[in-house]
Design a protein that fits this description.
6-stranded parallel sheet; alpha/beta; 3-stranded antiparallel sheet; binds pantoate; 282 residues; 10 helices
């Protein structure tokens, strides 16, 4: 496995692989690899001739008061894990390499970004779509792998890929959870031991939502109220950013669950903002 630092070298490697007829798989990440990322890499390994994992903490997807500076950067440990998972190349450019000057061109995906994290993190998805478009152009993958935990991001990228004719197969990979149900996330590393235990309330509230839908509840407000009640009864100082029931496809809020719906939430446990979601069908 090799670590590639420059766009020109990455382009060369990708062009050579394509010339050899190899299927190129891209696993875009910001590093601080956990079992969820490894699942993406293993899936890519099983389907592609060459696997590129990008590790880049993308400054333009963080808001001014967010954790860009604090985001864990653990390239050495990441490289060992990636190698074990069968990654061929890590593309780890510097911010200067990716953004040598102020970018004046951005990718905005409308409508899908109006709610959930799009509403509470203005500019976030513009930064994500822009960097993913750049990564697609640099690595020219046939297939790109994204985890379903970032449900809105997945939908945004899928739509960008279609609207801009990248022609890449976007492969969604199920959420990997800790034994107690907490969704794997690089940000879990921020949690204190006590908050780590309390953070399980997110997945518990989603389980409750699933049970309610399975037992015939269709009212979004009833589902959201039950989730919030559970969260605040277990973690009274949790700060609910949003709990939302949206159409699985359009990401627009629905009043009733009458078709496939995405139930998503963002909650601050201590000072750590965590997200999680589940897809339900009535
Ligand atoms: O999901 C992430 O880690 C990031 O948003 C991504 C897709 C690598 C873009 O920076």
């Amino acid at each position: 496995m090799r670590i590639v630092r420059t766009i020109s070298e990455m382009r060369g490697i990708s062009a050579a692989a394509r010339h050899e007829g190899k299927l190129i798989g891209l696993v875009p990440t910001m590093g601080a690899l956990h079992a969820g990322h490894i699942e993406l890499a293993l899936k890519a390994r099983s389907e592609c001739g060459i696997v590129i994992m990008s590790i880049f903490v993308n400054p333009i997807q963080f808001g001014p008061n967010e954790d860009y500076k604090a985001y864990p950067r653990t390239l050495e440990a990441d490289a060992a894990k990636a190698q074990e998972a069968g990654v061929d190349y890590i593309f780890a450019p510097s911010a200067q390499e990716m953004y040598p000057r102020e970018p004046l061109t951005h990718v905005d995906v409308d409508k899908l970004t109006e709610h959930l994290c799009g509403a509470s993190r203005p500019g976030h998805f513009r930064g994500v779509a822009t960097v993913v478009a750049k990564l697609f152009n640099i690595t020219r993958p046939d297939r790109a792998y994204f985890v379903m935990k970032d449900a809105q991001q997945l939908r945004v990228i899928r739509r960008m890929n279609e609207d801009l004719d990248f022609g890449i197969t976007i492969v969604p990979v199920p959420i990997v959870r800790e034994d107690d149900g907490l969704a794997m996330s690089s940000r879990n590393a921020y949690l204190s031991a006590m908050d780590r235990e309390r953070a399980v309330v997110l997945s518990r509230s989603l389980k409750l939502a699933q049970q309610l839908v399975a037992s015939g509840e269709t009212s979004s407000s009833a589902i959201k109220a039950a989730m919030e009640k559970l969260i605040l009864s277990e973690v009274p100082d949790a700060k609910v950013d949003y709990i939302e029931v949206v159409d699985d496809d359009t990401v627009q809020p629905v009043q009733r669950v009458t078709g496939p719906a995405l139930i998503a939430l963002a909650v601050k446990i201590g000072s750590t903002r965590l997200i999680d979601n589940v897809t339900v069908r009535p």
